[in-house]
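Marked as duplicate of an earlier ticket. Keeping the data here for the record.
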Amino acid sequence: MPFQRVNRIVNRKQSVTLDSALRLARLLGTTPDFWLNLQRACDLYELQRSREAEAIARIRPLKRRSGQPA
């Protein structure tokens, strides 16, 4: 994996792609899922603190009809 790609990932200028996850897992003895879950957690963290999160917070849950399972 090129140093530039690792640098962009570390500096949060590029996301961990499937290719990167596979390469990092092989190099560091982890799993691709570890790297992809880490990226997902970072993405979710940033979204929850974004302006879009304010709009999402205003969404009202749908009401369940009586007789439907929870």
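See parent ticket for discussion. The helical segments are 3-10, 18-28, 32-48, 51-57.
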